[in-house]
Specification:
Strand 4 and strand 5 form a beta hairpin. 14% of the residues lie in helices and 51% in strands. It is extended. The chain has 74 residues and is mainly beta. The chain folds into two domains: 35 residues; 39 residues, no CATH class.
Length: 74
């Protein structure tokens, strides 16, 4: 796997292109990646019905999210 291009296209948006090689085959994938602070991440997860379960790396660049428990109405 090789990162072949990285472009910042906005305040939070970074577009990266990654090249993969396996068994003589080559393919690329371009993905938008958002740089989020902890508060924005929590907001985005809540909007998707998720909550932060754990940071998987010391730099907090990878997280594990899980579905939020359903709260019953009183």
């Amino acid at each position: 796997m090789t990162v072949t291009d990285v472009r910042r296209t906005g305040d939070e948006l970074v577009v990266a292109t990654i090249e993969y090689r396996l068994n003589g085959q080559v393919w690329t994938q371009t993905t938008p990646d958002y740089e989020l602070d902890d508060a924005r991440l929590a907001f985005c997860l809540r909007e998707a019905g998720l909550e932060l379960d754990a940071f998987l790396t010391e730099d907090h660049s990878w997280v594990r999210a899980r579905p939020r428990p359903h709260h019953q109405q009183p």
